[in-house]
From TrEMBL:
This is Nucleotidyltransferase family protein. Transmembrane segments: none annotated. PANTHER family: MOLYBDENUM COFACTOR CYTIDYLYLTRANSFERASE. It comes from the Bacteria. InterPro entries: MobA-like_NTP_Trfase (IPR025877), Nucleotide-diphossugar_trans (IPR029044).
Length: 195
């Protein structure tokens, strides 16, 4: 099972490259990459925009993670999903989508989802946090064609909705993990760091 970190957003609401903002002495995106690499995923691809590509592609902290560029990042998340799907090895049985702006996501949640995919007969597995749906979300290879057809600023939400009978929800028991989209989100993250 392969991890795809969606990190090509243009940070319009933040006003600066949010994934490079510091958290615990390193950029936000590094936390997500490290947790993905420390999980049971067989490989990791990071989909970035053309502004982040030169920075992350040169970094030694990638530890084997593949960095690919989404030249159409302005179209929305769907293009990153497609670029990610096209970048994975052909023998991959499932992909897991993670968000690059969730530094509080850990390898534990990733492995919970992987374990439930292997244990249950469902082909889509989505993490929940106190019954609130979130990331990561895993899709079996039978949905790769559907994922290639999504449009606009949407990830796999329409696929989850369309095939709801095939979805298994993995309850993590944790508080919901927030995206870092605005300056107030980032300030809240920093307050949690010192508390």
């Amino acid at each position: 099972m392969w991890g795809i970190i969606l990190a090509a957003g243009l940070s319009r609401r933040m006003g600066t490259a949010k994934l490079l903002l510091p958290y615990k002495n390193e950029p936000i995106i590094y936390h997500v990459i490290r947790h993905a690499l420390n999980s049971s995923l067989s490989g990791v691809t990071i989909v970035v925009n053309s502004h982040l590509f030169p920075i992350l592609n040169e970094e030694k902290k990638m530890n084997g993670a593949k960095v690919v560029v989404n030249d159409e990042a302005s179209i929305g998340m769907s293009e990153s999903v497609k670029v990610g799907i096209e970048s994975i090895p052909s023998d991959v049985d499932a992909v897991m989508f993670l968000l690059g702006d969730q530094p509080l996501l850990s390898a534990v949640e990733i492995d919970f989802v992987l374990h439930d995919y292997e244990r249950h007969q469902k082909k889509i597995v989505q993490a929940t946090y106190q019954n609130k749906r979130g990331h990561p979300v895993l899709f079996d290879k039978q949905y790769f064609c559907d994922l290639r057809l999504i449009q606009g600023d949407e990830g796999g939400r329409s696929i989850v909705k369309k095939y709801k009978e095939q979805v298994y929800y993995t309850e993590t028991g944790k508080e919901p993990i927030q995206d870092i989209d605005t300056k107030s989100d980032y300030e809240r993250l920093l307050r949690e760091e010192v508390s």
